[in-house]
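Order emerges. As here.
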Amino acid sequence: MNDSNNQNSPIRRYLGIARFSAPVIIFFMVNYVQILTDQVFIGHYKTESLVAINNAAFPFFMVANICFAAGNALSILVAKNLGAKNVATAKSLVETSYLGSLIITVPLFLLFFFGGDSILHALGSKGEIHHQASSYLSILCFNFLIFSVSITTSGAFQGMGQNLLNLVGESIRVGLNVFLNWLLIFGNLNFPEMGIQGAALATVISSLTGAIVNTFLLFAHKKELVLSIQQLLKPKISLGKDIVRLGIPMAFEFTMANFIPIMIIYFLNKENPIYVGVFGIWNTLIWFAHYFSIGIGITGFSIIGKAIGAKSYHEARLTTQSMQFYGQTWCLLIAALFIIFPTEILGFFSKDPVVIQYGNHMGLLALILFPKAFGVLSAYGLKCYGDTISPLMVQLLGLVIIPVGMYLFLTHLQWGIKAALIAWFLDEAIKSIINFGILERLARKKTQLIKCSEPPIEKRS
């Protein structure tokens, strides 16, 4: 009895989350280095290129989240099947994903290759900024063809809990991307100066390299799953349907989450294009904390997913609450940096005084961190229980909150770029409260069902 309590003690739980999540968080922080260096290199290259890259990157990553959702769905299914000792099914899921994900990635590539220019026009980009954004997007879209491999390897590693292996390929990819950015954007070492096009080309080359490395590592790793190259050509459609069933709601949710900044950019482009560049920097800073939350949340796919697979719902609920503590603590640390060093942080991205002057709004940016992390981790908790519909429905509220907020604060009250931060905060706060409420209700219900199904303890005479 004491051993059981000690095994599930709060200290063991926190240490377990830290041990499993550390490689995932490092993985995402390594990924963050790419986003950071793209913004920093382009910001120091030309301010108008900074505006252009943010006009192009937001719609690209909004749609790319469809691919990432498929990877998350694969991760959940692999973890649950391994938790239930269905190793053969977990193996087939990964093998099916390689070719099956092409059904998603190829149409997205065609959409942006032929329709990227029209997408940028719809966002309100004009003139030289539009030209640069269009040239960047026409190269970047080739990443969609690589995603079919990268989402499979990442999903498999995360589902197995082998996050260190995932980190190896990601580190190589990001390291190469940083070097190629330096080489191609500025034209160093006698390479041609390609500017924003060089940033896109660097991303595609490094992504392909990372996908190849991770595939090699996945097939070389023969512990949880022993994959077969021959079986890649024999995908099981029924398993593909499971990924689609679980992934579609997440794809819509992730897409809607990224549609929020798209709507903000639309309003900012109409007011002042330089606002888009500043907002892009702010969004990059938010992702520094957000990636920590995602890393904790994805850890939940493995830890909570296996607990749910074993029907240990009480432990799953306690783990979810512990993850929230980690998320809010990290946000507190990042918020302190935003408040103490506002102009220094913006100056890291650009030396243009037009950009740096908006450092006085960094306190408002810091407030957004807390509800965003709270809502994201609540949504990940719901997904671990198999509820991907609720986070999607909650995310749809942003389609109302953001346009109303931007019209009221920016167009009507003329509060400038500060309007974007206020609307953004209200959106995250409202959605986080609703997500957490749904999660708590579901967790309590599952825990109560297990208690009710347990046989009564016989009294000893």
Summary: Confidence is low (pLDDT under 50) at residues 1-7. The two ends are 21 Å apart (CA to CA). The chain has 19 helices and no strands. The CA atoms of residues 60 and 443 lie 35 Å apart.
